[in-house]
Amino acid sequence: xxxxxxxxxxxxxxxxxxxxxxxxxxxxxxxxxxxxxxxxxxxxxxxxxxxxxxxxxxxxxxxxxxxxxxxxxxxxxxxxxxxxxxxxxxxxxxxxxxxxxxxxxxxxxxxxxxxxxxxxxxxxxxxxxxxxxxxxxxxxxxxxxxxxxxxxxxxxxxxxxxxxxxxxxxxxxxxxxxxxxxx
Amino acid sequence: xxxxxxxxxxxxxxxxxxxxxxxxxxxxxxxxxxxxxxxxxxxxxxxxxxxxxxxxxxxxxxxxxxxxxxxxxxxxxxxxxxxxxxxxxxxxxxxxxxxxxxxxxxxxxxxxxxxxxxxxxxxxxxxx
Lengths: 183, 128
Known about the structure:
Chain A is of the alpha+beta class.
């Protein structure tokens, strides 16, 4: 057994002040289970209710984004029932507050589309985001988007600081897409 | 119409639409796997009631803890329908939220902004 590597993993998380980490396949069922755990953990830490609700909201939208867009899936694609996608979610202590980070692989061919969505949200202040949220609500979901762009706006609105996005090309097929919010 | 009652779960809201008494309530959490699918029969039922017409006052109470963005979309449609009904009759909407929950307060204010005919009251509480 490679205990050293396994321990290093825990140590690394601790060094980054990550109090919660999930890496693996996410389903809607796992989403609710982790969601409940996060709420309990934040309650134990006596986090203010308003803050807890914001972390929870960012977490739900982030994970639903992974479930809907991740390139890595178990089972055949284009079948709603098989929406088991691979992703990484962490919640940690940041000097500025509580950080929520979500990451997953997306296909390179989807990067442009995702960047477009991100551009709509990036650099906007609270009032602009509020307007954008309303506009997206009125428009209804984009074709084939299952409502994720509204989810991104929601995440940005709940973040106490400008939300950060990153795209890291991994190979010819995949890009690692990452979102970071701080509450 | 018969009362529509749905028990709440960890992630879907409790629904009580008491048509005979024109009293409606939605409470709890709302982040279903598929919001459209979950709310479709509920919205259809409300549309049917709206079509019946009546001059009785409608009381619609929201006691939500959390809802996700795709449920927000459904609520917007719901408020549109309520505001439409309020052209013909009195519609009183109550939006309950925890006093420390500024997200829910903000959502209430935003939905209220769009109401032209219905009355929309924000009510804060400090329990739970």
